[in-house]
Amino acid sequence: MNKDKIIKREPAPNEAPYTMTRVLLVDDQPIVAEAIRRMLVTEENLEYHYCTDPARAIAEAVEFQPTVILQDLVMPDIDGMMLLRFFRANPETKNIPIIVMSSKEDPKIKSEAFELQASDYLVKIPDKIELIARVRAHTRSYLAQLQRDEAYRALHDMQIELEKTNKELQRLTSLDGLTGIANRRRFDEYLDQEWMRAARGNKVISLILMDIDHFKTYNDNYGHQGGDDVLRKVAQAIDQGTNRPGDLVARYGGEEFAIIMPDTDPDGAETVAEKIRLAVEKLAIPHAHSSAAACVTISMGVASIIPRDGILPSMLIAAADEALYAAKHTGRNRFVNAHDVKKTATAAEKAEQEPESEEKKATDDAAKPSKKKIAKDKIFRAAG
């Protein structure tokens, strides 16, 4: 690269970036290059390079990174307008101000140059004061744009980091600190969300509430640290027992857990409940003080509802809680469906009011509904 430097002073270490004026001249005439150099020699904080070979102009501009390019329009081997097109087509030089220089004041040439995105036009050899003024003005504009671009990139990066931080914070505020699964707050939010979705689509939603059997006696005999370990292991087993991404496993409170299962019918919910019961039992965590088994077990209440007007999410929770209560009081280490609880209570009431005759029993057995009818009936009765 043919070059001549003029650096009256280096920027101070604490000086703001983007303050150096860097001028690249592309002209095949050394006499022009020398004339421009003499005009700029007394200017502070300015660096000057010139290129005599237009074929090397793009490469030298990329290397030098000028704040202003002075370019002749008439050069051998390559047309000045074509070189201007090359500068604007290159990603690294497309935004650099380019002052084109011509030996004559021709409106047609000017018009074509500005159509090709020339920044300015000078007749060479220009007046020193005018040249410096234009170089400084275009440099200020270009450096200001670089600063804005850098500020925008920094702001964009900060926004991305902020979004990541907010997402992580939201995730952490939705998790239970001990078990790592969703907490009660997330449970409430998700139930409301899926309840409305099920109501819009007339879909069934199922809920399993579960409780670790005799957890208080476990804590009393094995210590609270042992109890915490049990909570973590049981939570993991429950979480692994659900396969669908739409199902939410949450710590409901204390030793209670819950699973929200959108678009899951009673039979599907019961299948999941039994799978989880077996998974917890398979952990084989010793519990010598349990009446249900020699190891840690869970009891579960299952309920399914199709949301309709007048039915609230709290009714689904109440139904599952009632079924959980029934599971605890019928031996533990099992699940009970809320529909079966209601059905049993209704049958008990009828039995008290009127003893069932053998003839009526035979008639009822003959009129038993199909399995499909039973599954559907579980949903509606649970909802009622």
Sum up the structure in keywords.
alpha/beta, Rossmann fold, Alpha-Beta Plaits, 2 domains, 5-stranded parallel β-sheet, 5-stranded mixed β-sheet, rod-shaped
Can you walk me through this structure?
With 384 residues, this protein is of the alpha/beta class. It folds into two domains: 21-151, Rossmann fold (3-Layer(aba) Sandwich), CATH 3.40.50.2300; 184-383, 2-Layer Sandwich (Alpha-Beta Plaits), CATH 3.30.70.270. Helix content is 52%, strand content 15%. It is built from twelve helices and ten strands. The protein has helices spanning 30-40, 57-64, 80-89, 107-115, 128-173, 184-201, 215-240, 266-282, 313-328, 338-353, 358-366, 371-383; strands at residues 21-26, 46-51, 68-72, 98-102, 120-123, 205-212, 248-253, 256-262, 298-305, 335-337. Strands 2-1-3-4-5 form a five-stranded parallel beta sheet, sandwiched between helices. Strands 7-8-6-9-10 form a five-stranded mixed beta sheet, with helices on both faces. α9 packs across α10 (338-353) and α10 (338-353) packs across α12. Mean pLDDT is 86; it is low at 1-17 and 380-384.
Could you give a short description of this structure?
The protein is α/β, with parallel strands linked by helices. Helix content is 52%, strand content 15%. The longest helix has 46 residues, at 128-173.
Low-confidence stretches: 1-17, 380-384
Round the mean pLDDT to the nearest integer and report it.
86
The helix-strand sequence is: EHEHEHEHEHHEHEEHEHEHHH
Anisotropy-based shape? rod-shaped
